[in-house]
Amino acid sequence: MGITSTILGWFSNDLAIDLGTANTLVYARGKGIVIDEPSVVAIERKSGNVVAIGKEAKRMLGRTPGNIVAIRPMKNGVIADFEVAEKMLSYFIRKAHNRTTFVRPRVIIGIPAKITQVEQRAVRDSADLAGAREVYLIEQPVAAAIGAGLPIAEPFGNMVVDIGGGTTDIAVISLAGIVYSESVKTAGDKLDEAILSYIKRKYNLLIGEHMAESIKVEIGSAYPLPEKRTFMIKGRDLISGIPKTLVIDDSEIREALAAPISIIINAIKIALENTPPELAGDIIDRGIVLAGGGALVQGLDILVREETNLPIITVDNPLTTVVLGAGQALDQLSLLKKIAIASQSSR
């Protein structure tokens, strides 16, 4: 019995990966989430050697000497740098196993709802080169719906809005398929950029990506907060060139985020307009599910509710919903075969 279970443990090394623009999460079957790291790779310019991947590489963003460059291989939810993405995936797959293993894993990867076939192939090929035996691709909003516990295989309309780092994917799902989907390249990264450019424009202060992200997390909101909140920011004064600190409040950041958030809300409205009437009736009853890191922006659920007059459900842990849903699909092969966009067995 002991030997059999050891052998099974050795062989059951299937992985679910949420290959995100900002973060990559890996779920190992039977173990849960084993990796949650930034999708960043630091590379030496001359040799092309990898210096660091994940958390260590993210700390280097904007701080590297001339001979090292920190790259984010994913842009707007798709692979922008194939070679670097493959190195990153290989590293995460090896790390998820904690060992070099002779068994190649079956891998499910969550991808944006509206990526092209060329982009799908790039994801599949990089997973194949990274050592996967079989590769299944599933749309992130479908994985998010499974992770949120929605009954996607039933004949009911379920609407999921997955606000990631690079894309916001909106999907109406029924009978294990996407009835209508909408994808916009406005999500977490665009919110950071909006903060960065607002502070540069208003205060002539240049801040880094890290600082912009910290501001968003600490005082970013889509709807007026119950009480005023402030945050001290550090950057470089563009006029004097000298480092400077200043204090900003939540109302300013709300103003900075207004444009990208309105793009996301507009995309939700377009998706609702294009939903078949019967399924629209289901959404009135069941509401819209918000997932992804962007769902953590304070007051976003209230704003979406006001704009759509529909119930809004924010999942318990928006950052892990996609990878947990993809992980659940590993255990339900019949469902996986229905929802996978494409699968590939390598060699």
Descriptive notes:
By secondary structure, this protein is of the alpha+beta class. It folds into three domains: 2-37 and 77-142 and 321-345, ATPase, nucleotide binding domain (Nucleotidyltransferase, domain 5), CATH 3.30.420.40; 148-186 and 262-314, Nucleotidyltransferase, domain 5, CATH 3.30.420; 188-257, Actin, Chain A, domain 4. It has twelve helices and 19 strands. It has helices spanning 2-11, 55-60, 82-97, 117-129, 140-147, 188-203, 209-219, 250-273, 277-286, 300-308, 321-331, 333-339; strands at residues 15-19, 23-28, 32-38, 41-44, 50-53, 68-71, 74-75, 78-79, 106-111, 134-139, 158-163, 168-174, 177-184, 205-206, 230-237, 243-249, 288-291, 312-314, 342-345.
Largest sheet: 6 strands, mixed
In which range does the helix fraction lie? 40-55%
What is the average per-residue confidence, as pLDDT, rounded to a whole number? 87
Q: How many whole angstroms does the radius of gyration measure?
A: 21 Å
CATH superfamily of the largest domain: ATPase, nucleotide binding domain
Roughly how many Å apart are the termini? 32 Å
Identify the overall geometry: flat
Which secondary-structure class do the elements indicate?
alpha+beta
Q: How many helical elements?
A: 12
Looking at CATH, which topology of the largest domain would you report?
Nucleotidyltransferase, domain 5
Amount of beta strand = 25-35%
Strand order of the largest sheet: 3-2-1-9-10-19
Write down how many β-strands occur, each being a DSSP E stretch of 2 or more residues: 19
CATH class of the largest domain: Alpha Beta
Under the CATH scheme, which architecture of the largest domain would be assigned?
Answer: 2-Layer Sandwich
Which parts are unreliable, with pLDDT below 50 for 5 consecutive residues or more? 1-11, 343-347
Number of structural units classed as domains: 3
